[in-house]
Amino acid sequence: MLAIVDSGGANIASVRFALERLGVQSELTADPAVIRAAERVILPGVGSAAEGMKRLQARGLVDCVRGLTQPVLGVCLGMQLLFESSEEGPTETLGLIPGRVALLPGGPGVTVPHMGWNTVLTGKPVALLDGIAPDARFYFVHSYAGPVNAFTLASCDHGTPFAAIVQRGNFSGVQFHPERSGPAGARLLRNFLTLA
After folding, report:
1. Which of 27, 103, 139, 169 has a C-alpha 20 to 30 A away from that of 157?
2. Ramachandran angles phi, psi of 157, nearest 5°
């Protein structure tokens, strides 16, 4: 069973539809027992880090998510919440991946929020990208991003390099929206469903 954490994000319905297109049933839940019992967990989210953490705290899910041992995929804000903190607020987040999420820098020819289709850069094979062409594009919508560090599997550049895919142990995250990224996003979700 795959659990989608009911974090109140506006992208929850599109994540569920993307999974249904793959023939995968999921359960949207804020029940810690159901989340802990799931084979895999997706943590979606859109909006601000402060609001995302407030929603998790109000549902009693902070310690639940921190203690998960099965594969977990954070999507967009869900990925940002995996880091230690965000300067948006500022906000202390889940602390599962070292680093602080920061506002993307604007500038000539660089608009914030970052909205649109971009490729990601990897330096080594990435299981989540298995079978996806190196020039595949993914759909991004965000103003804040995680740093490129030892836990970055793929990066993107929008005024500055930022983490597009991260992983530490059983926790993975993608800054883009796989559920809105066409065949490449669908393949990434399928790859997540088959991770060991």
Report:
1. 169
2. -130, 125
- Mean pLDDT over all residues of the chain? 95
142 is catalytic: no
Q: Which of 114, 142, 158, 177 is catalytic?
A: 177
Confidence of residue 38 (pLDDT cuts 50, 70, 90): very high
Task: Show the tokens assigned to 97.
Answer: 């991946």
Q: Which of 88, 142, 156, 179 is catalytic?
A: 179
Which pLDDT score, from 0 to 100, does residue 9 have?
67
**Active-site residue, from 51, 64, 76, 156:** 76
CATH of the domain at 159: 3.40.50.880
- pTM as predicted: 0.96
Question: Domain span at residue 112?
Answer: 2-193
12, 6, 131, 168: CA torsion to nearest 10: 140
What is the model's pLDDT at position 123? Answer: 87
User: Is 33 in contact with 64 (CB distance < 8 Å)?
Assistant: no
Q: Give catalytic status of residue 179 as yes or no.
A: yes
Torsion region of 169: left, alpha or beta (phi above 0 gives left; psi -120 to 50 gives alpha): left
Counted domains in the chain: 1
Active site residue 64: no
